[in-house]
Design brief:
With about 180 residues, the protein is an all-beta fold. The protein has no helices and 11 strands. It has strands spanning about 40-45, 50-55, 80-85, 95-100, 105-110, 120, 130-140, 145, 155, 165, 170.
Amino acid sequence: RVALSVYREQRRGGRGVMGAATREEDFVNTLFVAKTHDTLLFFTTLGRVFAKRAFEVPEAARTATGKAIVNLLELQEGEKVAAMMRVRKFSSDRCILFATERGTVKQTFLTHYRNIRRNGLIAINLEEGDHLVQVCQTRIDDHVMLATAKGQTIRFDVLQVRTTGRDSTGVRGIQLEPGDRVV
């Protein structure tokens, strides 16, 4: 977490500054602006969700490498964070859409994730060998696009995915060829 005041606007001819320092074989995946009382939801590859308030993430300098996520969340062996989102208000008109590596999609109301225990909650039931790839907030008029490693895509209206409970599995979002996976 870095204070927004650390970054300043540059005019024409600006040379830029280092936005974040990373360790070897590491990279910045997600960057967003949040208020200190916003809730951050962390979705893992094993289908669990963790919640932290933004002020609970340690603040660091702009060029600091930061703290490993395993020091903030109680992750299991081999579990990684697949997606992260900022939630300002848990409104009943917002949903969360999940996509897994084997093409399963699931939509759940955002309000189901209002009270999350310290050791996390099951956000989606995954089949054996499946992993969560991406999670995003949706509205009624949104469209979803899934893409696979072999270049296949599908686009559909978010209303075609039935809204289910928090611990359900979901429905098929895309038919995969052998050896393919959703990316």
